[in-house]
Amino acid sequence: MLTPCLVILLLASTPGLSQGTEVVAPEERHLLPARSLRLPNDTYPLSYQLHISTNIHLGEWRFAGNATIDIEIRRSTNEIVVHAKNLSDIQITLRLLDNAKPEELGELVDDITHTFDPYATFLIVHPRVDYQAFEAGQRYRLQITYTGLMGTRPKGLYWMAYEEEPPSNRTVYVAATQSEPTFARLIMPCYDEPAFKSNYSIRLTHSSSLTAISNMPVKELVNHGELTTTTFQTTPPMSTYLVAFVISNFDHISETYRGVTQSIYSSPTSKDKGRSALKNVVLTVAALEDYFGVSYMLPKLDHVALKKNQGVAMENWGLITFRDDSLLSQDDADKHKTLKHKVMQNHEISHQWFGNLVSPEWWSYVWMNEGLATYFSYVITDLLHPEDNVMEIFNRDEAEHAYSYSSFFDVRPMTYYVETESEIMKVFDIISYKRAACVIKMFHHAFHQKTFVQGINRYLKTFQYSVVSEMDLFNSIQVAVLEDPRFQDQHWKHLVRHIMLSWTHSEWLPIVSIIRNYENNTITLRQRSIHSKTEHWWIPLNFATTQSPSFEQTHVEFFMPPVMEHTVTVEELRLQLAGRDWLIVNKQQTGFYHVLYDTDNLHAIARQLQSNHSVIHAMNRASLFQDLAPLIERNEFESVDVLFELFKYLEFEDDLTPWSQVANTIEFFDNNLYGTTAYSLFKQYVRRLVTPTFLRLFHKDKTEVVTMDILVRTDILNMACRVDMPECLDYTHRLVLEYVFKNINFESDYPDYYAIHDTILCMGVRQLSDEEFQKLIDLLIVTDPNTAMHDDMIYSLRCTRNHRRMHHYLNVLVGENFTYNLLNERESMFYLAYAFKSNVASRSSIWHFINQNYKQLARSPHFVTLFNDIAEFVPERQRPYFATLHRNIDAYLRAEHLSSKEPLIPVDSRRVGKKIRNSEEFLDKFEHQIHKWLLKELSPAGSDDTYAASFSVGNGSARPTSLLSAAGNIVRSAIGV
């Protein structure tokens, strides 16, 4: 222990540091022993006293801070390490505390100094002489005064401004915090890791014209004339990332229920817009208390509407911050948006239990916060609003993205170790939110919903105010499963930890193949991942059959062990299953995996759909198409006949749930068949399927419309117009003319269609005459670029399929003489690339435009990025022509010494043609087969002779003209080959 002596006051000399502070330069780090980016466990914060003073009302962004931390030495050490980042004017005082009389301050500790590690953002307090200074069992009070600077981005303590309404028109400033995940160190020196929970006593000094709120209710207000100090009650133990406060002139509305006061804070003129949200949050807190059997632990919960420019919401304990448009919304303006806002609000409220009451010990377990909050926000919204089909919306908005995440994002397991600040930020991703939510949903159903919730209850009660790893959650659920008599004869009942670990530590998604042996009535189960041969899972399976078509019981009936193949008898599974019966696995798609069936079983399912589709649950009708998606996208199925047999029943499908999945499959076929001989037949067939549903949806009285209707309308409208359904073309054409030339407002005049207005505009633009298209271009040029109307027109004009109009649109994007007067260069290149990727029919036109104008386009530093992106869509047969254009562009860039954001990809790069390679394989493999099936289906009198005749061009062996060859002709023409 250090000998008590004089206090050392260290004054600042370096920006962001203090006088006497030793700084470890980055280039010298290799000369020192490697220091972990994690805090050592030698010391622990017992409590914080934080005092922040601001003059935000004067537009001053610097703030003064005083952080007093009572620390316990848990292992003898010669340093006390805390986080601090971008804090200046640091002064440190250290006092020894008397363990017998903790309320009394001990003597000052001298002979200390501190260093700062900018790489780890550590502030390190240590003796001047290198010997053991702080003994285990001792307690100290570390007091640090400092200053910091507020920014405009939501990191640490930040500021924003808004204009008051007339007559004052005064600019008002607001200060708010964002501490998650690693930004508390920008507000105060602290142990900025979630495992270091502590109590916080917060004081804020601010203008007397403003109000301060924090995690806890106000304890005391002391007026100092123009300034006021607001002191808050001490928080329960919580992690630094939950420290929060807001200083503003906001007004609020409140309601107290069950002893919890909830308030909606917003600008004074907006407070009445929060009444809908207030009603929702009061109901939600009560519903979550009842559902989990654990009370909300604080006396109040504030919800603050901020004019955020980044992020949407933050779940600070007792003080949730939202972007204002997600909190201050009116019911019925847009039913889908209103429901999404409720789910978002309920997500943040769910965090008051998952993340706040019980916190992860490290960011490896972000999914335990975000996955649980995501899933149960839907569950609780569904309980409160059963009429809105909320769990179907979960499948569409969350599960659908989770199923396809590996196509668009870096793949990693749910539990994944990270260390640097940037790595930590990256795990707040689709895996932690959506994939984890789907895995949690699977086990919520597999272990019986009530049993799973009993496990959650045990988890929350056992670890309240503590930090946890995933094993703590798994053990809690394990106990609940063992206590459930329904599982007593199950061999896996002691393996819950292993079962769940197989999912949280795997990167990929399993595909389960169900292969029936119709002679001996056995079923072979095979599991695999498209991307990995080594990963295997414990997979919960349940079954429905022709003789037992009950889809309501979604608990596990059989756990497939983590092996590649496992064969079981029908008797072992306790199934009633005859030879021609159908078998469906994964009832209501509660399990998070794809299911593939043998062809005979798929035909049996198709027969059932065509005779009485309602026997099979709507979620399983939808999953038939979603489960086939990996095979369709990778061309791994042997025959498309059975898929088209599954399509046949759709003209009688009156439930909207399957259509959301069918739409993706139809779009895939539409994009790949465009320009082929089979395409006109395909459109005719899809028109037959979609017409009844289109007419029902778009001629329905709007009072009958429910949220799921609004969501699926986008899919139905897109499908119907893609295949040239006359009613759809007329409908969208009319609405585009009304929107553009009669100034209708979708949000007020067509509120039920507002959520799909972008699809309406896109499809409607395709039907415009030359004169109407030109009028739309003229209107775009004179429209304020900061308006939604401007964005809508830019977005929708790229949908034209007319070669000349597309050139006209592209010329407008880049401006006269490439001046980029309508949009800046980056925006212009973005919309050009977006038009190329989203409009298959106009890709050849855009290639032609680029070839004609590459010298002018190449002067933009963003052009090469555009060119590299669209090079991924070059067909194999057009590689020589692409190579010529590539060579010309490369030579021009070199000759003119033009810079770009990224280098031009090599002409032989694997990226070239990457996005169209599967399409080429698809056409080679299935085009003739699809054409033959469509001819037979649409022309009952047709025969193989009819089929052959349709291909008789010239010598009779020519392949149907496809989009790829059509594009090639234009590219050849453009390049002059």
Model description:
It is built from 29 helices and 31 strands. The protein starts with 21 loop residues before the first strand and ends with a helix. By secondary structure, it is α+β, with helices and mostly antiparallel strands. It is globular, with a radius of gyration of 32 Å. Mean pLDDT is 89; it is low at 1-21, 23-32 and 942-977. Among the domains are: 22-249, Immunoglobulin-like (Sandwich); 252-352, Neutral Protease, domain 2 (Orthogonal Bundle), CATH 1.10.390.10; 360-504, Orthogonal Bundle (Neutral Protease, domain 2); 508-627, Immunoglobulin-like, CATH 2.60.40. The strands form eight sheets. Strands 6-5-9-3-2-12-15-14 form an eight-stranded mixed β-sheet, with no helix packed on it. Residues 45-242 form the Aminopeptidase N-like N-terminal domain. Its cofactor is Zn(2+). InterPro entries: Aminopeptidase_N-like_N, Aminopeptidase_N-like_N_sf, ERAP1-like_C_dom, M1_APN-typ, Peptidase_M1, Peptidase_M1_aminopeptidases, Peptidase_M1_dom, Peptidase_M4/M1_CTD_sf. One of its GO terms (biological process) is proteolysis. Residues 582-859 form the ERAP1-like C-terminal domain.
Task: Provide a short characterization of the protein structure.
The protein is an alpha+beta fold and 977 residues long.
Q: Roughly what is the average pLDDT, rounded to an integer?
A: 89
Instruction: Report the CATH C-level class of the domain at 22-249.
Output: Mainly Beta
Tell me the quaternary state: single chain
- The CATH homologous superfamily name of the domain at 22-249 equals tricorn interacting facor f3 domain
Q: Compute the CA-based radius of gyration.
A: 32 Å
The total count of helices amounts to 29
Q: What is the straight-line distance between the termini?
A: 85 Å
CATH architecture grouping of the domain at 22-249: Sandwich
User: Helix fraction?
Assistant: 25-40%
